[in-house]
Amino acid sequence: MRDPDFIQGDVRITGHRGSDDLLSAGLGLAGLAGTPAPYADALHPTAGELRRRAIQNSWKGIADLGPLGGYGRVYGAVPAVPGREYQAFARIPGAHAPHRVLLQLPDGFDTQRRCLVVTASSGSRGIYGAIALAGAWGLPRGCAVAYTDKGTGAGYFDPADDSGVQLDGTRAKRGSAPLEFEPVPAAADAGVAIKHLHSGDHPEADWGRHVLQAARFGLAMLDRAYPEQAPFTAQNTRIIATGLSNGGGAVLQAAGLDDEGVLAGVVALEPNVHVEGHGRALYDYATDAALWLPCALSDARFDRTPLARGKDGKPPAAWLARCASLRELGLVGGDTPQAQAAQAYEHLRKGGWTDDALNVAASTQAFDLWRAIAAGYASSYLRRGATDMPCGFRYAATADASPAVRASWWADGAGIPPGNGIALLGGTDATADPALPGTRCLRALWDGTGAEVAGLHASVAATSVRLPRPELPLWVLHGAEDGLLPTAFTSEPYVAWLHAQGRHPLYWKVPHAQHFDAFLPLPGFGERHVPLLPYGYLALDRLWSHLYAAAPWPRDNPPVPAARPRGAGAMERAALGLP
């Protein structure tokens, strides 16, 4: 049987059994939660070691595996799932760079109830970026799981030694092997090139196509694995799409492009979803937050907000400096930081931010994520390379980016630096508010004028979702206290738009859930919030019952679970309010 025409090169097939399974690479729950999986030789990690570490980091980046969180005890599980992996580079027509597709096929694949789960990585993570959702739910059930990195991932290219990442995760020199990302040659000091941001492809506009392509890849690999039962098609194999964050947005994009009825149902968690003319686009509210939020969080109402105060109980000096900067620019008035902070807060509130979202957005500000997101996405939207990013930004290896750190980039990187020996540089000055110049420049790309602004707006418009078919079972779940992708800008306008167009999505705005389950072990988070993953698993269970047990699909929302914070103790099932 011929592979699909979008496959670039060979399909890599590996077996994963015994001490190296599909779901945890043999680490089990305790190992996933533990210290980084070791390398025998840190300078030359093997493909298997890199895979194990990549799976571990993907779990840690998505799930709360802490001792109080309840994973594996209250909800979820990490059983050993033996099987095979089929992985390849693939290409969207017209794209400069390839992306990864992967099928995990358990030995216990249920050939009588054919099930293929298709998913896209969260954030800008690599190919295993949705394993804690799609893999954890689908593999133990006997489903095959098809993944796409949707044009993101940590296939960083390093001009310092002209190296990139091979299909197996190891690094290789340009020209010596097919690489995940291979930009045009540049000087050795040109800085690190990131696939999502510097490929020139604007992958976000194609995330839905990536998901549908991953489904085709999964079906083709099932044909390979079970030739006597081929062909596997959308007519004889139920294809369930699920994802969270950017992956959630990707499966909703796919639902709108699925004219052939490939998808049997969709479950999207906390999706980065944009409907042109409804809500606010990520770049809009991220740059708004990057400019205004440091000052707004200096308001006394956030004195008890986790990560909003230093050890001295005061706002960081940089946040107070932002208040002074806003006053100098004439954007706020008042002679005290308190008066200025109150006005910055009111600005954000008028823009649609809720108190719940602002409280949790303090963590995003504390980790400088708004600026990192905006700088990277601006580069992607304007199709820039590593040497001509907007607003003077660039990525460069830090002094501690040792050969061992670089060798592990594919396994350890989250897809958008800073981190793992790569810094975001530029866009700063030597004042008390050094991040202000770059932040203002990024904001001006949204609310300014000129060709660059028009180009960025056109790129954002290209990410807008289309209507799914009327009969498609579709469930959106979002944390009521999401401070990164607030519901007021994403899920709520999307769901309202669907209803206005005669669709009947299910929607759960889960009380006390925020964006990052992985943040719940942080001080002040776990006692205030509930994880979102268990509600995603439950929605997938309901979809399974509908598809395989003829359970009716609700036309109206089931009651939203009465979730409540766990408090200082360990999570108990009653706190989740699961039916």
TrEMBL record:
InterPro entries (UniProt xref): AB_hydrolase_fold, OHBut_olig_hydro_put
Native source species: Dyella marensis
Top-level taxon in the UniProt lineage: Bacteria
A Gene Ontology biological process term: butyrate metabolic process
Gene3D superfamilies: alpha/beta hydrolase
Pfam families found in the cross-reference section: 3HBOH
GO CC terms: extracellular space
Keywords per UniProt: Hydrolase
Signal peptide: none
Protein's name according to its UniProt entry: Hydroxybutyrate-dimer hydrolase
Keyword Hydrolase part of the UniProt annotation: yes
Any one GO molecular function term: hydroxybutyrate-dimer hydrolase activity
